[in-house]
Amino acid sequence: MAIHTRKNTEKIPEPTLRRLPWYLSNAKLMREKGEKYVSSTQISKQINIDASQIAKDLSYVDIAGRTRVGYDIDLLIQVLEDFLGFTNMHKAYLFGVGSLGGALLRDSGLSHFGLQIVGAFDVNPDLVGTKINGIPIYHSDDFEKRMKLDGVNIGVLTVPIAIAQEISDKMIAGGIKAIWNFTPFRIRVPENIVVQNTSLYAHLAVMFNRLNETIKK
Ligand SMILES: NC(=O)c1ccc[n+]([C@@H]2O[C@H](COP(=O)([O-])OP(=O)(O)OC[C@H]3O[C@@H](n4cnc5c(N)ncnc54)[C@H](O)[C@@H]3O)[C@@H](O)[C@H]2O)c1
């Protein structure tokens, strides 16, 4: 018997959005092991999240589970990939090919999650005109010209903090609609522009804190 869980039409909460890729990875792992169905209880055991939370999270995506057997794995993977936008490639530019920017260009994992960096910009003459991982590096001055050719609407910001705002303004003026900001600077943008701030160090602080708690025990 199929359970027709009504699709939850509320705005999806950010924590749910951040958990969905875990369910996707887990479903892919189960598929590799030859499983055809997966239940929220099974996912729960693997990734240590409450089964009812998983069922609630999955109510935001258009998928119905079956009693006892759970979700059809192929369908679950397809629905999650579509929902998360991992199936259609989002083209992006990266600004600032330094130690962090260069590492992101070398990361082939981004394209598995739907982000394709099609070009990068820097001002360092040693970098301009070269490629990293097949991605061409242009001079920052050529950004407007390239924008007209590449159909990009996402910008990855990995420039020095002092010029984070200036480069963001330049990106937006050129037509960029979403900025993945790795600088610690809280950039100001018009209301219609999406900003995602990301810091590796924030997670590090959590790890140190938890580690200290374990050592104390
Ligand atoms: N979010 C995180 O977890 C995290 C981790 C590391 C670094 N960062 C931040 O990322 C940024 C870059 O750090 P990094 O260590 O790679 O620095 P870096 O100095 O190695 O790289 C900065 C790059 O920006 C380039 N640049 C300078 N002016 C430019 C311009 N006008 N247009 C385009 N490129 C320009 C430089 O030539 C250089 O290649 C910093 O703001 C840093 O604080 C964040």
From TrEMBL:
Keywords: Cytoplasm, DNA-binding, NAD, Repressor, Transcription, Transcription regulation. Its main location: cytoplasm. Residues 85-186 form the CoA-binding domain. The keyword Phosphoprotein does not apply. GO terms for cellular component: cytoplasm. SUPFAM superfamilies: NAD(P)-binding Rossmann-fold domains, Winged helix' DNA-binding domain. Gene3D superfamilies: NAD(P)-binding Rossmann-like Domain (3.40.50.720), Winged helix-like DNA-binding domain superfamily/Winged helix DNA-binding domain (1.10.10.10). One of its GO terms (molecular function) is DNA-binding transcription factor activity. InterPro entries: CoA-bd, NAD(P)-bd_dom_sf, Rex_DNA-bd_C_dom, Tscrpt_rep_Rex, WH-like_DNA-bd_sf, WH_DNA-bd_sf. Residues 22-61 bind DNA. NAD(+) binds at residues 96-101. It comes from the Bacteria. It is found in: Cytoplasm. GO terms for biological process: negative regulation of DNA-templated transcription; response to redox state. Homodimer. Modulates transcription in response to changes in cellular NADH/NAD(+) redox state. NCBIfam families: PRK05472.2-3 (NF003994), PRK05472.2-4 (NF003995), PRK05472.2-5 (NF003996). Belongs to the transcriptional regulatory Rex family. This is Redox-sensing transcriptional repressor Rex.
